[in-house]
Amino acid sequence: xxxxxxxxxxxxxxxxxxxxxxxxxxxxxxxxxxxxxxxxxxxxxxxxxxxxxxxxxxxxxxxxxxxxxxxxxxxxxxxxxxxxxxxxxxxxxxxxxxxxxxxxxxxxxxxxxxxxxxxxxxxxxxxxxxxxxxxxxxxxxxxxxxxxxxxxxxxxxxxxxxxxxxxxxxxxxxxxxxxxxxxxxxxxxxxxxxxxxxxxxxxxxxxxxxxxxxxxxxxxxxxxxxxxxxxxxxxxxxxxxxxxxxxxxxxxxxxxxxxxxxxxxxxxxxxxxxxxxxxxxxxxxxxxxxxxxxxxxxxxxxxxxxxxxxxxxxxxxxxx
Length: 320
Ligand SMILES: *[C@@H]1O[C@H](CO)[C@@H](O)[C@H](O)[C@H]1NC(C)=O
Ligand SMILES: *[C@@H]1O[C@H](CO)[C@@H](O)[C@H](O)[C@H]1NC(C)=O
Ligand SMILES: *[C@@H]1O[C@H](CO)[C@@H](O)[C@H](O)[C@H]1NC(C)=O
Description:
Protein name: Transmembrane protein 231
Family: Belongs to the TMEM231 family.
InterPro entries: TMEM231 (IPR019306)
Order of helices and strands: EEHEEEHEEEEEHEEEEHEH
Distance between the termini: 31 Å
Organism: Gallus gallus
Subunit structure: Part of the tectonic-like complex (also named B9 complex).
Largest sheet: 10 strands, mixed
Bound molecules: 2-acetamido-2-deoxy-beta-D-glucopyranose
C-alpha cells in the first residue's frame, strides 16, 4: 500500500492514503491555499487591517507658568493701548504705555486626583478716569504634559481676544484649554519638540513680541492648545475710578489623544482580524475536504477503521 496518510477525521473512522503526487494530494494542497490565503485578502481589502492610528483618553498635567502678555486697547489710534507682560524686555519696549495690573490666580484640583482641573485668573488694570478699554488681548502660558503613552512635554498658550465698540468694565471668559493635534503622537518615548517658550522673553526686538508673529510661530506647531471660549462676556458701565477687570476661568479637560500605534499593537489587531475570518474558512473547507474524501472524488486508498483496543484486551494479547 503506497502513499502517505492524507486525511482522517474522527467522525469518519477512516484514513485515506494516497501518493504525494496524486490528484488527492494536490487537491488537499489547493484546499489549504484556499483556506489560509483568502482570509488574509478579505481582511486586508476590507480596510483597517494595519492599525494606522489609535486613541486614548487622558487628563493632561497642566500648570500655569505665571507668564503672560497683556494688551488693552484704549482707542482707535495706533498708539492707544496699555500693555504689560511678565517679560522685562517687552515691558521696557512699552515706555509710557506700560501699566502694571493687579493679578490674582488660583489653580484648583476639584477632584483631588493630583492634577489641576482649572485656573481662575483675574487681572485688574488700573485706569485714569479719562481712559477707556475697548479691546483686550491676553496670552497666558502653560506647561502641558501627557504621560500615559509617550511622555509629551510642551509649553503652550491660551489666547484670549475681544474687541467692542462700547468701552467695557469687565471681560469674563470661561472655557476649555483644548488640545489641537495636526500630527499623531508617538506611542512611547519622550517628546520635547515643543518644550520651548511661546514668547521669546529674552529677545530685545519688538518684532518678537508682535502678537501676529507670536501667533504665527505658535500655529506652525503640530501640537498646540487653544482656549475654546468663543463668546466671552463683555460688561460695560465702568465706574470712574474702578479698574478694568479680566476674569477668566480656564479648564483643563480630559482629552482624546490620537497616537501612532506601536508594532505589537498593529500586529495584534491584524492577527485578530485574520483569525476571525480564517475560522469561517476553516469550517467551510473542512466540510469540503470531508466531502471530497468520503465520496472518493479523487482516488485514495481508504484504510478500514482501526478500532481502538481496550487496554485489558491488549494486555491479554501480550501474555505469553
Ligand atoms: C521643558 O522645559 C522646561 C523649561 O525650559 C525645563 O525646565 C524642563 O526640564 C523641560 N522638560 C523636559 C522634559 O525637557
Ligand atoms: C530669542 O531671541 C534671541 C535674540 O534674538 C535669540 O538669540 C534666541 O535664539 C531666541 N530664542 C528662541 C528660543 O527663539
Ligand atoms: C509636523 O507634521 C508634518 C506632517 O505630519 C510633518 O511633516 C512635520 O515634520 C511635523 N513637524 C515637526 C516639527 O514635527
